[in-house]
Design a protein that fits this description.
The chain is an all-alpha fold. The protein contains seven helices and no strands. Helix 2 crosses helix 3, helix 4 packs across helix 5 and helix 5 crosses helix 7. The longest helix has 25 residues. The radius of gyration is 16 Å and the shape is globular. Belongs to the CDP-archaeol synthase family.
Length: 165
């Protein structure tokens, strides 16, 4: 799951530039995604997630670390899925009239999990169901909000984020 946890903070660090929605509005008159979702953030975030996944693959293969077996496909799907989940949440937030940075408990914490899981289930279901067992799922559900909050507070302290959530 580490390849899914890395992309969002890296996207925040590296973001800026052209918004993915090209500043266009949806049929409701609101932005499709908003300025917080940029091509630079997407590319950097996915690359960082894939890179950390490749490190995991290397550690398991070289040092026989007891980590979930990853593949290049699984780390790519987890990394991309995490950011697609975040974008999906942003799309829904805009439809609900929520502003960029406005807190949306639960959705803010689990969007990356939903996106990563959905993309992986669609394109690599054998890997997903072999690795994401019930104990692993429970661990992810418990760890994710704590990790999310901690990283966001850190991002706020170092002035990468305007809000600590």
């Amino acid at each position: 799951m580490v390849p899914a946890y890395i992309p969002n903070p890296v996207a925040a660090l590296c973001g800026g530039g052209t918004p993915i929605d090209f500043c266009r509005n949806y049929t409701d008159g609101r932005r499709i995604l908003g300025n917080g979702k940029t091509y630079r953030g997407l590319i950097c975030g996915v690359l960082a997630g894939v890179l950390i996944g490749l490190v995991q693959i290397w550690l398991v293969g070289t040092y026989h670390w007891d980590l979930p077996r990853q593949t290049i496909l699984s780390v790519t799907l987890l990394a991309l899925g995490a950011l697609l989940g975040d974008m999906g949440k942003s799309f829904i937030k805009r439809r609900l009239g929520k502003e960029r940075g406005e807190a949306w408990p639960v959705a803010d914490q689990y969007d990356l999990v939903v996106g990563a899981f959905l993309l992986t289930i669609i394109f690599d279901p054998a890997w997903f169901f072999a690795v994401v067992t019930l104990p692993v799922l429970i661990a992810i559900l418990v760890i994710t909000p704590v990790l999310h909050r901690s990283v966001n507070i850190l991002g706020y302290w170092i002035k990468v984020k305007k809000e600590p959530w």
